[in-house]
Amino acid sequence: MKTASDMKEQPDVAAQPEPIVTDRERLAGCGFTAEESAALLWLRQWYQSGGSDRMQLVRHWEFLKRLVRSGRLGV
Predict the structure, then answer these.
(1) In a domain, 31, yes or no
(2) Which of the residues 10, 24, 32, 55 could staple to 36 if both were Cys, CB 3.0 to 4.6 A apart?
(3) pTM for this one?
(4) Rounded to whole angstroms, how far apart are CA atoms 44 and 37?
(5) Distance between CA atoms of 37 and 45, rounded to whole angstroms?
(6) Does any domain span residue 39?
(7) What is the rounded distance in angstroms from the CA atom of residue 33 to the CA atom of residue 44?
(8) How many domains does the chain have?
């Protein structure tokens, strides 16, 4: 049971609401582009829903695609 002194020690959470930051805003704050953020959020959803047994192949494909787009690997 809470006493009056317990109530004084706890800060009033409702008086200081924290702003709600979405995952996209948090990623943008870390320097990710909108496209990269969308890809990361898609991958997170995919992993949470079971992923795939072909994940290693997909990782290699994504890595190669990134190298081509950045100009580090010619086609």
Answers:
(1) yes
(2) 32
(3) 0.45
(4) 11
(5) 12
(6) yes
(7) 16
(8) 1
